[in-house]
Amino acid sequence: MSRVKPQLFWQGRKKLGLNAAKLLPVCRTLESTANELRWIKQHVAETPSIIPFGARVWKLCDKRGKGLPLAYVLGNQPFGDLEIKCQPGVLIPRTETESYTIHLSNILRRSAVSSSKSDPADQQPLNIIDLCTGTGCIPLLLYSQLSRSLPFQSLNVVGVDISQKAINLSRQNLHHNLGAHRFPAPSDKSKSHPLQRSLHFLKADIFSSSAVDPILSTPVCSEQCAAQEAEEQQQQQQPTWDLLTSNPPYISPSGFLVSTSRSVRNWEPKLALVPPVERVDLHQKHFYHHYYPDDENLLPTQKGNVEYEEEDVFFARLLEIARTYRPKRVLMEVGDMEQAKRVVGMVLGDGKLRKLYFGEGTEEEKGGTVQIWRDDLVGFEGYEEIMDIGKEKIVVKGHPEGHGRSVYLRRVGVVDA
Amino acid sequence: MLAAPWVCRSCARSLRRSGVFVSLQLRKASTANPTLAGLPPVLIDRARKLAAEHQQLTKQLESDYEPTAAKRAGEISKVVAALQELDKTKAALDELNGLLESDDAELRQLANDDLDATKKHLETLGMNLSATLTPKHPFADMPCLIELHPGPGGTEGRHFADTLFRMYQKYCENKGYTARVLSYQEAEDRTPGLDGEVPISEAVLEVTDPGAFAAFRGEAGMHRVQRIPATEKQGRTHTSAVAVWVLPSFPENSTDAENDFNNPESDFYVDPTEVKSEKMRASGAGGQHVNKTESAIRLTHIPTGIQVSMQDSRSQSQNRERAWRLLRSRIASLRREQREAQAKDLRDSVLSQAQMSRGDKIRTYNYQQDRCTDHRSGLDVHNLPNVLQGGEILDKVINSVQSWLTAMDIRNLIAQEEAQARAAEGGSDKKKKGGK
Ligand SMILES: C[S@@+](CC[C@H](N)C(=O)[O-])C[C@H]1O[C@@H](n2cnc3c(N)ncnc32)[C@H](O)[C@@H]1O
């Protein structure tokens, strides 16, 4: 990273004042400095305190100038129309995550509206689970968007994380946004209540079956719909999760040193970003066994179609979960187009997942969806590009200049309106 | 062809005050058709045609109901009612006039007593009729965006843009409108101006009430300021300008909006493949790799070159959403302007000269003289501080412009009807000749 030109310094000081001079080294441009200074002042003006305005602004600029990310300095980050509290130790929600979450909620809302139009009596509960939830931003925004526009549907949302800090913060975020009346409160457990809405945050390691299986196998709100679901499951073998989302750690240990920005490296938790080595080793064995049961000792680079890197280990586990619990839709955030392709490769390379989400037979018969979404999807939903992955043609959505950001799976037979 | 919606009564009232009608009467004096309540014959013709159409529709609807016919009948029923009322009053007036010739002195006196009131009433009814005939602006019921752009030439315009911005904000507050700031861009140069003005390079205010577009559309144009700037050392008066654009926008979260955005027929439709999106200084891999705070969004609509950028919010998705709103509104507005330009060709060229284009100065705020003049309505008011505080004097100015706009609409309508009538006549003449 290059040093800021001295000329910029005096320009900044002259035009924006002394506070700005503190921000310039981290903000790097006058424009960005002016924006951050404005946000800091707004924040200070909005939070009452006995300490004088100027002193507080100065203090926050000082902190920010030392490199602390702005969201930690201010203690929050906007996410859709929510305000998500942020604390060191828990990853700051990213704008890319925000973008596809909004898009997802649009998909779910439209589908629910159109299915309830075709059959008003058919008011399916909507069950959503987010693994590796961090601040809880994804389930909170989905809950917020869906509970407002679908008042008559029961909605059950769960967020899971391994870190106690994250779970505490996500619960805090629920109450913070409830307090600001940004969405309706989850309904209490009284059975008489016809509308069920719930939002829970639970601590669990997603690699530990004993911890995570009980959560995954009961995506239910009230006992009433539990009974109904169980019956359904027996009868039609239907999965009960309408959507599984996850933004898991996906950066390789070497990538962490090279491709992350300094502020990420120095201030954000590595646990949230880089899959731990022990896990990689442990799981790799399992994973290779799964794809290549005959040849456990081959190295990944020697394999045929299925490419796999160590930073992909969470995706392997997520797909394993998808195999078992068969959620109707899966959305996984990825680091770049290469990783997106590898994840798609894993889906196509696994017979059961392929059958579930891609389909078999001719183009028309297939009916499932395996897609890659780029950044900058909202407003550019119409953009589509076809990419060859393995022998298959995969749809890539979003503005062509956007990075590959997520992999979206939709089960055969499930339709998005 | 008339668009269905109509101008409200209060506009009709203000129209009378504005006195445009007097000149219309004079202009029309030579036309062959008999005048009614001093209304131009084309308007009466138009109303009679619509009344005939209404009668036919009603008959048709009695035998079999058809929704589009019913809708049309509903739309023109106001005109029919106004015309009937007018005819009735005209008949009453004729009767009174007859009575004035009477031999009975008492009767003459009675008639005389009633005469003035009836004439007045007839005049009002005439206004009503023309108001019902005036096409309402297609965006009239929508919320709007008010955009402020300082004119070229220094800090002074940027300072005054801030004052105008606050003027509209306060005006909305006073009138009970809901206004929210979509964008407020401070200029790089931060020299303070008069009364704590901050120089701004651009600002966008959204007024979310339905009908805000109709209320504010008269504000569009160049606003000129004459005063001694805060930075002026020799005490010279400067003249600067701020461009105000008023664009229609959609209510947030409306299903209409969603429908319109996806409907290629709609003015608000924007083909995303024609839009270039730049996240300013998008760098590196994104996602978990960076926690940048640059949330700015810039959208460029390639066919028209319209460019919008938003960076007010910390949330990129919010900036993106606002940028799309603004882009759609600007494009819709442009399309409407283009259509209007086409319609203008049909009309009298004399009339179209009175139309204001974006570049014309519409109002002057003169600090030394404590005066605000609107160059269209010709209204001249004092107490500039009240104007700049969005007070009742500004309301008076804005109302005078509304009247002026309505009057213009009616003149345009009449001109258009005449042009069409002429074209039709010309056509039938030719036919006759061809027949010989
Ligand atoms: C990249 S962060 C994503 C946070 C949040 N979903 C977001 O989008 O901002 C990954 C999260 O996964 C959690 N995590 C890491 N290992 C985990 C595991 N084995 N089981 C469950 N959560 C885990 C971390 O604590 C961290 O909060």
Automatic annotation (TrEMBL), chain A:
Name the UniProt record assigns to this protein: S-adenosyl-L-methionine-dependent methyltransferase
InterPro entries, per database record: N5-glutamine_MTase, SAM-dependent_MTases_sf
GO CC, alphabetical: mitochondrion
Example GO molecular function: methyltransferase activity
Keywords: Methyltransferase, Transferase
Species, as recorded: Pseudoneurospora amorphoporcata
Gene Ontology terms describing biological process: methylation
Domain of life: Eukaryota
PANTHER family membership: HEMK METHYLTRANSFERASE (PTHR18895), MTRF1L RELEASE FACTOR GLUTAMINE METHYLTRANSFERASE (PTHR18895:SF74)
UniProtKB/TrEMBL annotation, chain B:
Pfam families hit by this protein: PCRF (PF03462), RF-1 (PF00472)
One GO MF term: translation release factor activity
GO cellular component: mitochondrion
Domain Prokaryotic-type class I peptide chain release factors: 281-297
One GO-annotated biological process of the protein: mitochondrial translation
Superkingdom classification of source: Eukaryota
Endpoints of the signal sequence: none
Ranges in coiled-coil conformation: 44-113
Alphabetically ordered keywords of this record: Coiled coil, Methylation, Protein biosynthesis
Family: Belongs to the prokaryotic/mitochondrial release factor family.
PANTHER family registered for this protein in UniProt: LD18447P (PTHR43804:SF7)
Name of the protein in question: Prokaryotic-type class I peptide chain release factors domain-containing protein
Source taxonomy: Eukaryota, Fungi, Dikarya, Ascomycota, Pezizomycotina
